[in-house]
Amino acid sequence: MPKQRRRREREAxxxxxxxxRVEGGRWxxxxxxxxxxxxxxxxxxxxxxxxxxxxxxxxxxxLCGRGIHPTTYRxxxxxxxxxxxxx
Length: 87
Description:
Layout: H1 4-23, E1 25-33, H2 36-49, E2 58-63, E3 72-80
Antiparallel strand pairs: 1-3, 2-3
Keywords: DNA-binding
GO molecular function: DNA binding
Protein name: DNA-binding transcriptional regulator PaaX
């Protein structure tokens, strides 16, 4: 198919770049809640505050609850490592 090879190569470059950034940083939790309605309400506000952050540097985790453990919703942002080596 035309342009399929270019698209695959472009996606591979993006994936490799993201892996390098993730290896050189850490995930910092910005929002965590067990209430789904609260999650939907606050996620929009927090996302507006993080407008300067690339979408690839955001991670949404939904930790499924079972039994006595409730489902947890978590929004994290990738924080790059300090070039001086201090963390």
